[in-house]
């Protein structure tokens, strides 16, 4: 990936980074992301591109919004 697939980014307390991409994936990385080969946790649930990702203020959930599928998914962080 060259990074051009990323549509949305959010961070949580300088510990996690979440991204949403053109492939319907929500990706979690440890912060800071210094290398292209950083390990990630990828979850799928959207059938189209992800337009927005946001952590909740309490840091317990990540909310993602899909573009073409018009869905909102609440992900519990464990």
Provide structural commentary.
- With 78 residues, the chain is an all-beta fold.
- Helices cover 0% and strands 53% of the residues.
- Strands 1-2-3-4 form a four-stranded antiparallel beta sheet, with no helix packed on it. Strands 5-6-7 form a three-stranded antiparallel beta sheet, with no helix packed on it.
- A hairpin with a 3-residue loop joins β1 (6-12) and β2.
- It is globular, with a radius of gyration of 12 Å.
- The termini are far apart.
- The mean pLDDT is 92.
How would you summarize this macromolecular structure in one to three sentences?
This protein has no helices and seven strands. The protein has 78 residues and is mainly beta.
Distance between the termini: 27 Å
What helical percentage do the residues reach? under 10%
Low-confidence stretches: none
Largest sheet features: 4 strands, antiparallel
Overall radius of gyration: 12 Å
The total strand number stands at 7
Order of strands in the sheet with most strands? 1-2-3-4
Please trace the helix and strand order, writing H or E for each element: EEEEEEE
């Amino acid at each position: 990936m060259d990074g051009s697939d990323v549509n949305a980014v959010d961070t949580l307390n300088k510990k996690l980074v979440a991204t949403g991409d053109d492939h319907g994936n929500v990706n979690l990385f440890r912060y800071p992301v210094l290398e292209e080969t950083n390990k990630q946790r990828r979850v799928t649930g959207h059938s189209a591109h992800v337009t927005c990702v946001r952590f909740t203020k309490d840091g317990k959930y990540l909310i993602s919004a899909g573009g073409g599928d018009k869905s909102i998914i609440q992900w519990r962080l464990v």
